[in-house]
Amino acid sequence: DPVLVGAMQWRATVTAGEFTPQGVANLLWALATMGERADRELLEAMQRRATATAGEFNPQDIANVLWALAVMGEGVDGSLDGLIDRLAARVPEFCDQFTKEAKSQLHQWLLSCELDLVSGA
Questions:
Q1: pTM of the predicted model, to two decimals?
Q2: How far is CA 82 from the centre of its chain?
Q3: What is the C-alpha to C-alpha distance for residues 104 and 80, in angstroms, rounded to an integer?
Q4: What are the start-end ranges of the H helices in the chain?
């Protein structure tokens, strides 16, 4: 339901400062899983919140956010580089803690990065 998704995105945008890292990850994961794209205002709000709390993200949160951004095709234009860089920099820290599913998500994200480089995006 587009009205419900729009209302959810608006509410998340105005309350973004209250989101935990898991909340940011769950919201972006849910949108990507539903085949929805986050609107620009929501992405900017989630980027601000996630960048401010990047040190608190656990391995699953990191995998979910990077995967969701790849699935939604976000970050290709460089607008989310700060967020992506902060989370990606933490991946080596958790190498031995990622679940098989999280590793699969990270693999999909890495493939999307490679495809962006090849396509010149």
A1: 0.87
A2: 12
A3: 22
A4: 2-14, 21-33, 40-52, 59-72, 81-88, 100-119
